[in-house]
Amino acid sequence: MKQQRWYTPYLLVAPAVIWVLVFSLWPFLNTAILAFTNARPLQPAQFVGLANFARLFHDSQFSYALTTSLVYVVVCVPLLTLLPLLLALLVRAKVPAIGFFRTTYYFPVIASAVVVAIVWQFLFSGDGMINSALQFFGLEHRPIEFLSDRWLLIGCAIALTVWKGLGYYMVVYLAALANVDRSLHEAAAIDGAGTWKRFWSVTVPGVRGPMMLVAVLICVAAMRVFTELYVLSNGTGGPGGQAQSMVMLIQSMGKGLDGQIGYASAISIVLFLLTMIPLAIIAVVNNGDQLKEMRANRQAAKIVRQMKKLEAAR
C-alpha cells in the first residue's frame, strides 16, 4: 500500500480553508474595520471612531428596521416552532396518499422566494384576488391596502415566511419524532392521558432538543429577513421605509455611488451581535451541565487553595 505524503491532508482541506478565508473571514473583518470609518465608494475612508454607532440612536430608519426585525422574531418564532410540529404529527400517520400530502406541504420550500413573493404581491395588491374576493362577497366596499400600510405589509410578509417555512421544519420534526419511543405514548394512554396531554407530556419533551434548534434557526432567519419585505414593498420598505428590515436598511444605505458604506457596516455589526444572542443562549442551554461542572470544579479548587494558605499560615 502506497504511503501518503505528509502534506496530502493539507492539500485536501486547502480549497475549503481558502474559500472560508476569502469569502467569509476577510469580508467579516473588513466590515468590522469599515464600521469605524466614513467609507464611501471612490473616496478615501477616514477613521471616525464610534460616530456611526452613535448615529444609530438618532436614526429613525434604524428604529423602524429594528422594530420590524423584532416583531418578525416575536411572531415567527412561536408560529414556526409549533405549527411544523403539529403538521409533522398530522402527516406522520400512515394513511393512503400520505406521501402526496408530504410533498405538497414541502413544495413551498423548494419554490423560489422571489417568485412566491411576487405571487403574494399579486394576491394582496389593491386590485388583487383577496380584495376582489372581499368585494365580490360584499365584505369590503373599498380595497384594503395590504401592501401600503406598515403593519399590514409586515403581516403579509410574516404570513409568507411562515407558509414557506412550514415544510422545511416539518421534515426536521419528522426526523425527531422517529426517535420518540412509542411505548411512552402507549403507557400514557393506558394511564388515561388524552391526546393533548400526551402531546405536552410525551411528544414535546421528546423533541425538546430539535425544537430549541428550530427556534434558534427561525430567530436568526427572522432577524435577517429580506426577500419577502423587499419584493412585497417593491424595494421601498413600505410607507416612509417604516416596514424595512435590518438587511434592507443595510442594502439601501450601502448601495450606489453615494452609499454610506461605513454606516451600513456599523448596522451590519449590530445585526451580527443580535443574531449571536440566540446562538449564545442555545450554547449555554446545551452545555449547561458542563458549565455547572466547571463552576463546581473552580469552587473546589478555590477552597483547596484557601485551605493551603491557612495551613501555610499556621
Helix content class? over 70%
> What is the β-strand count?
0
CATH topology: MetI-like fold
Uncertain parts: none
Q: Name the CATH class.
A: Mainly Alpha
**CATH level-four homologous superfamily name:** MetI-like
**Which structural class matches the secondary elements?**
mainly alpha
Descriptive keywords:
314 residues; mainly alpha; MetI-like fold; 73% helix
Description:
This protein is mainly α and 314 residues long. It has a single domain, classed as Orthogonal Bundle (MetI-like fold). It is 73% helix and 0% strand. It is built from 14 helices and no strands. It has helices at 8-34, 51-56, 60-91, 98-110, 113-124, 129-136, 150-177, 182-190, 195-206, 208-223, 227-232, 246-254, 261-286, 288-313. Helix 4 crosses helix 7. The longest helix is centred in the N-terminal third of the chain and has 32 residues, at 60-91. The chain is globular. The termini are far apart. The mean pLDDT is 84.
Quick rundown:
Helices cover 73% and strands 0% of the residues.
List the helices and strands and how they pair.
Layout: H1 8-34, H2 51-56, H3 60-91, H4 98-110, H5 113-124, H6 129-136, H7 150-177, H8 182-190, H9 195-206, H10 208-223, H11 227-232, H12 246-254, H13 261-286, H14 288-313
Helix pairs in contact: 1-13, 3-7, 3-10, 3-12, 4-7, 5-7, 8-9, 10-13, 12-13
